[in-house]
Design a protein that fits this description.
It holds the Pfam family PTPA. The chain is mostly helical. Helix content is 48%, strand content 2%. A two-stranded antiparallel ribbon has the order 1-4.
Length: 372
């Protein structure tokens, strides 16, 4: 295989010291700025906003359609006795990997000559593959979602996208990606990556809330408490990512939002969407970009890189035998593991089986929200 595994972006963050070095890097700053620029591009704009859609944006949308078609070629297998991930996901993942690295799905889908360079192509293939979850654990979380943002960022750095494309990247491309992920989550019963459960924002995603709050931040009538109004969710769920995410949660969890997603319920008490929007940025920096259990899976390639060695790379490493259980990374400290140490059944599986998809709440586990 021409694009060998050894050429692909790899994870390097193992410790808090590694993460601190990364947070001082150009890659971290460009990644955060890219997310903030996308947020600005969708501020006050519903999903149907008539933004310009360039040829390159259209081709990425077509690419996502092709990936959904690949998934349809690998239907879920009989798995009624389990609420954990469906093993057919591995067949989909393997097929997608083959299409990307052997059959050149990217270069045949995107005509831009900018992605043909050896400096960016393997990075793009890897980030896109990892955007859809983990093959071994059959799970998905905010770290995988971040891989899709890295995919878009590398395309931007290679000149495939310009800042004029930013509104469409959120309202069309990212929105289509989220729709595809909900299909995959529902078909393959992907498990939540990590164990935040009911005391996290959401089982799977973060950015629909960050971008969605920005969309609503200038709305004249809708307020954060509107998430409790089913008529509002039905009328506006397709126009605003935040409301659409709430509607999806309600569709797969039978318990009230207070019990299934208490942090979202708490956030609904904030007075304005503008305040929610600012709080989402703070929370994303702290809970995603600022957490070792999430960022230890961040992939460094030729485009998104860190110059020199990280602190843990200068220290003696455990032997391969000693490191097998943790697969070369650490797990978070707390009541539950914060990474991949504890399997969490899919609440989507529970809802499709006709049972309550409610995870138990642990007193004191909910952190204060940074919206002040």
């Amino acid at each position: 295989m021409e694009n060998s595994v050894t050429n692909r972006p790899t994870s390097r963050i193992l410790t808090a010291e590694d993460l601190e070095v990364f947070q001082s890097s150009e890659t971290y700053n460009s990644l955060l700025q890219f997310i903030l620029d996308l947020r600005e591009a969708c501020t006050g704009r519903p999903n149907s906003f008539p933004c310009a859609v360039s040829k390159n944006v259209e081709q990425v949308l077509d690419l996502l359609e092709k990936i959904e078609t690949i998934s349809k070629q690998h239907p879920a297998v009989e798995n009624e006795k389990s609420r954990f991930g469906n093993p057919a996901f591995r067949d989909f993942y393997d097929d997608l990997e083959t299409q990307l690295f052997t059959n050149n799905l990217l270069t045949t889908s995107l005509s831009s000559s900018d992605i043909q360079s050896s400096d960016g192509l393997v990075d793009l293939q890897t980030y896109l593959l990892h955007s859809f979850g983990n093959r071994t654990r059959i799970d998905y979380g905010s770290g995988h979602e971040l891989n899709f943002i890295c995919f878009l960022l590398v395309l931007f750095k290679l000149g495939v996208f310009t800042k004029d494309d930013f509104p469409a990247l959120v309202l069309r491309v990212f929105n289509r990606y989220i729709a595809l992920m909900r299909v995959l989550q529902s078909v393959y019963w992907l498990e939540p990556a990590g164990s935040h459960g009911v005391w996290g924002l959401d089982d799977y995603h973060f950015l629909p809330f960050l971008f969605g709050a920005a969309q609503l931040s200038t709305h004249k009538y809708l307020r954060p408490r509107s998430i409790h109004d089913n008529d509002v969710l039905e009328s506006y769920g397709k126009e605003y990512m935040y409301l659409g995410a709430i509607a999806f949660i309600n569709s797969v969890k039978t318990a009230s939002l207070r019990w299934s997603s208490p942090m979202l319920d708490d956030i609904s008490g904030v007075k304005t969407w503008a305040k929610v929007s600012e709080g989402m940025v703070k929370m994303y920096k702290n809970e995603v970009l600022g957490k070792v259990p999430v960022m230890q899976h961040f992939l460094f390639g030729k485009i998104l890189s860190v110059v020199g060695e990280l602190p843990s790379e200068r220290a003696p490493r455990a032997s391969k035998e000693e490191d097998t259980h943790h697969e070369g990374h650490v797990h978070g400290e707390g009541i539950w593991g914060d990474c991949c140490g504890i399997k969490i059944p899919s609440s989507i599986a529970a809802s499709q089986q006709g049972h309550e998809g409610q995870l138990r709440t642990i007193p004191g586990a909910i952190k204060p929200i940074p919206f002040d």
